[in-house]
Amino acid sequence: MYKKLFHLVLFILISVSVRAQAAVILQYHHVSETLPAVTSVSANTFTKHLSYLKEHDFKVIALNELISALEQSETLPDKTVAITFDDGYNNNYEQAAPILEKFGYPYTIFVNPKLIDEGMSYVMGWDKLKELAKKGALIANHSGQHDYLHRKLENETNAQWRSRIKKDILDSQKRIKEETGQDYKYLAYPYGEFNNELQALVTELGFIGIGQHSGAVNKDSNFSRLPRFPASGFYSKLETLITKLNSRAFNITKLTYKDSVTEQNPPMLTVTFNMGDFHKSQFACYVSSVGQADLNWISESTVEITSPKVLNKGRSRFNCTAPSISNPGSYFWFSQPWVIENAKP
């Protein structure tokens, strides 16, 4: 009897701890039927996404509220979601904003101030962004002109790179504050690419770094590389998005790898978990365009993850999941992004 009671109490504690600070951030680009499908979602599909959130009692909150709660280890409601857009396209104003207003959902738009100042026709001007900001939208930093921030210019020293990127980030932040009055220190990495040096610089500047690799977030997430679930193009299918919306963040105590932008090929990742709510035997990882990853559990809580094949040059990803014990039908989800700089082992 006492053994059963112990397990019941343990189950309740696990359930509460898993729910306490878990959340999902969604990433969109275009809401359009005429622009590239890979980064677009139709207005009809976007409405279906928001309808699902409404009908299933998801708590859609502003990104600053979500991040503040995680930083302070505050309890978030179960099924918490934040909605974000990258690049500030005109269709965000014309298509997305009116739909979001109907649902009463807050959202964030990451913009490139230099492109706005240059009058690029495909992005919103400051007038539209100020209008949306007055209605409650958060306007945040996506770098000056959407460059690959981790890349050094030819013959550029590390000190010169740091100075250039620091100026880019701070100048962009200054323009956003001047035009909208907002000063949220969130940087969405262009193309979702970052390396160790860029993460360190972003943290040094007091910013939160946000990627576009998939996964849920919690208080133990690395705030220089918060994940988001892409919800456009191939990833806009509601049946698969539902699983992601109900996902949870692994409690990771240590993450070890050389660098996410790397010449190590195949790359290797070592993860140490705070175990408790998933079975080790059900943990699985998949490699983009390759298939199942090789797993080597070197202890009860630490696993080495490698690709069975050399990866192609460019962006790739390890996606790792495990079903939750305390919340049947819900999966823990973690993603490790890679930028492979060569295709040789």
Walkthrough of the structure:
The chain is an alpha/beta fold and 345 residues long. Strand 5, helix 4 (90-103) and strand 6 form a beta-alpha-beta unit. It folds into two domains: 21-246, TIM Barrel, CATH 3.20.20.370; 253-340, Sandwich (Immunoglobulin-like). The chain is built from nine helices and 19 strands. The strands form five sheets. Strands 1, 4, 5, 6, 7 and 10 form a six-stranded parallel sheet that branches. A five-stranded mixed sheet has the order 12-19-18-14-15, with no helix packed on it.
Mean pLDDT: 93
Give the terminus-to-terminus CA distance: 56 Å
For the CA atoms, what is the radius of gyration? 20 Å
Helical content class: 25-40%
Count of spatially separate domains: 2
CATH top level assignment of the largest domain: Alpha Beta
User: How would you sum up the major sheet?
Assistant: 6 strands, parallel
Q: Uncertain regions: pLDDT < 50 for 5+ in a row?
A: 1-20
Spell out the CATH superfamily of the largest domain. Glycoside hydrolase/deacetylase
Give the topology, please:
Elements: H1 2-20, E1 23-28, E2 30-31, E3 40-41, H2 43-55, E4 59-60, H3 63-71, E5 80-86, H4 90-103, E6 108-111, H5 113-117, H6 126-134, E7 138-141, H7 158-180, E8 186-188, H8 196-204, E9 208-210, E10 229-230, H9 238-245, E11 252-256, E12 261-262, E13 268-273, E14 284-287, E15 291-292, E16 294-297, E17 302-306, E18 314-323, E19 331-340
Parallel strand pairs: 1-5, 1-10, 2-3, 4-5, 5-6, 6-7, 8-9, 12-19
Antiparallel strand pairs: 11-13, 13-17, 14-15, 14-18, 16-17, 18-19
